Amino acid sequence: MKDVGIRIKNLREQKGMTQKNLADRANITVATLSRYENNQRTPMSDIIVKIARALGTSTDYLLTGDGEIEKKYHEYNAAVTMIGFASRAREITPRQAAILQAIAEEMFGSAS
Fold first, then answer.
1. Are residues 61 and 81 both part of a single domain?
2. CA distances (Å), 36 to each of 6, 42, 45, 49, 72, in order?
3. Burial (CB count <10 Å: 0-12, 13-18, 19+), residue 55
4. What SS3 class is residue 29?
5. Is 58 found in the same domain as 34?
């Protein structure tokens, strides 16, 4: 479980977030976050969920470091975002449709 703190810190820094930014988003104190990042305390499961959401990652990634899970999580979020965008759009130009199709094919492979 010691790697959890390292993964939290590394991901926070990769995203350009300060400890205060992340602590505010996860609704915890900066002191508590610092203890997690320095492996002085281990976050409870409900806090892992809050931190994962604040970092835009999966709890599996924070707990295991499994990059494949992380990749699938981001692909899923991107797909949900695209579906949401498409469902709200009343009219999509052919160019916009082609761009969305190209993004989907790049992420998930060709449909054929």
1. no
2. 8, 6, 13, 14, 25
3. buried
4. coil
5. yes
> Any idea which residue has 């991901």 for tokens?
11
Q: What is the CATH number of the domain that holds 50?
A: 1.10.260.40
Whole-model pTM? Answer: 0.61
What does the pLDDT look like over 41-96, one tens digit per residue?
999 999 999 999 999 888 888 998 876 556 666 677 777 777 776 666 667 777 87
Same domain as 53, residue 13: yes
CA pseudo-torsion sign 22, 28, 31, 37:
negative
Residue 73 token pair: 């999580």
Token pair of 28, please?
A: 């915890």
Are both 54 and 79 inside the same structural domain? no
- Supply the range of the domain harboring residue 77: 68-108
